[in-house]
Design the sequence.
């Protein structure tokens, strides 16, 4: 099993925007309704950022058209808010958020004073029509969740469908999402993947849900609470077999960690070490992690690695590259070296 754990190099890790000149700027609330003929994207295209952005302070010249703006926010590192997201949050008439305490930390760090309203699973039915009404009156409403991309295991789907039905504008400001961060770091195939989000919390229902995914030839992405991680990995092994997998924890934060290995190795690790802290994403290899292809790739990867490295280092490198079980890679490396002699 391999593990990458490091202090995130891209940022100080203190979760503050660099040089945060948290000054408050008057918001420009002038809105222009897009013409019906305009393409949605250009009609709602935001933040006239004609000048390069060199400071954290929102630009007072930002001018927003009416519509719903789905704004991705950082998943743990405040520096991951995009310039455009910052400008739109500063210029919107209102920010609809899950937990105002969480969003206020973000807006305060960037000197944004846009009013906040709550939009979460418990008040969504009541608040949704009010948001639609605001859009019809020409307002720009930004939707954020506590972290990452709204609608991805977070509120917003029903709001977007309501906005579309009401013939109002909607656009997105892309940014962080834990699912994609974990996938690209997992070492598992990224050409085809399926996002599942959270599995049921009870084992029987979880096993059923996992069995339904057993034939899918794509990497599988799950969100999981650290408390349930061990049980979830155990059920995944039962339902899917001993596939390569990875657990990504605390992504973009100071103690970001990627633990790669087979499901059985990960089950053993968390049994021995207990539930980890922080937030986690689990990636599991798809049904097409076909043994024959793996062996062909494995042979050529091992042969190349063994040309310049010791058996031990070559195995470690190939385990990292393939996320295959260490036992399997080691045994094949031994076969290859004995074939050579
Ligand atoms: N909308 C978010 C997104 O785009 O990633 C996800 C929200 S969902 C309610 C929260 C789950 O995302 C957590 O339980 C965890 O599984 C995952 N997550 C969020 N931030 C994470 C991070 N920094 N590291 C690892 N997983 C994270």
Sequence:
């Amino acid at each position: 099993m391999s593990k990458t754990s490091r202090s995130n190099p891209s940022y100080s890790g203190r979760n503050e925007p660099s040089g945060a000149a948290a000054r408050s700027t008057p918001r420009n609330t002038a809105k222009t309704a897009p013409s019906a003929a305009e393409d949605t994207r250009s009609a709602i295209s935001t933040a006239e950022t004609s000048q390069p952005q060199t400071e954290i302070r929102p630009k007072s010249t930002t001018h927003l058209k009416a519509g719903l703006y789905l704004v991705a926010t950082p998943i743990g590192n405040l520096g991951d808010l995009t310039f455009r997201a910052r400008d739109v949050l500063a210029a919107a008439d209102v920010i609809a958020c899950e937990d105002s305490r969480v969003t206020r930390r973000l807006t305060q760090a960037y000197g944004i004073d846009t009013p906040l309203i709550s939009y979460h699973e418990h008040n969504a039915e009541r608040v949704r029509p009010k948001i639609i009404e605001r859009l019809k009156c020409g307002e720009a409403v930004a939707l954020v969740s506590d972290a990452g991309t709204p609608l991805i295991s977070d509120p917003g789907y029903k709001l977007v469908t309501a906005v579309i039905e009401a013939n109002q504008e909607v656009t997105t400001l892309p940014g962080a999402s834990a699912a994609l961060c974990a996938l690209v770091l997992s070492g598992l195939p990224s050409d085809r993947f399926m996002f599942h989000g959270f599995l049921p919390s009870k084992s029987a229902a979880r096993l059923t849900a996992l069995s339904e995914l057993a034939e899918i030839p794509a990497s599988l992405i799950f969100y999981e609470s650290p408390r349930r991680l061990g049980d979830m990995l155990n059920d995944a092994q039962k339902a899917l077999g001993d596939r390569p997998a990875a657990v990504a924890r605390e992504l973009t934060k100071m103690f970001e960690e990627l633990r790669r290995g087979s499901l059985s190795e990960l089950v053993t690790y968390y049994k021995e070490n207990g539930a980890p802290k922080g937030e986690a994403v689990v990636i599991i290899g798809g049904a097409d992690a076909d043994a024959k292809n793996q062996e062909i790739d494995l042979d050529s990867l091992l042969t190349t690695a063994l040309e310049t490295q010791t058996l031990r280092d070559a195995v470690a490198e190939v385990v990292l590259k393939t996320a295959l079980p260490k036992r399997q890679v080691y045994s094949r490396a031994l076969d290859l070296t004995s074939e050579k002699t």
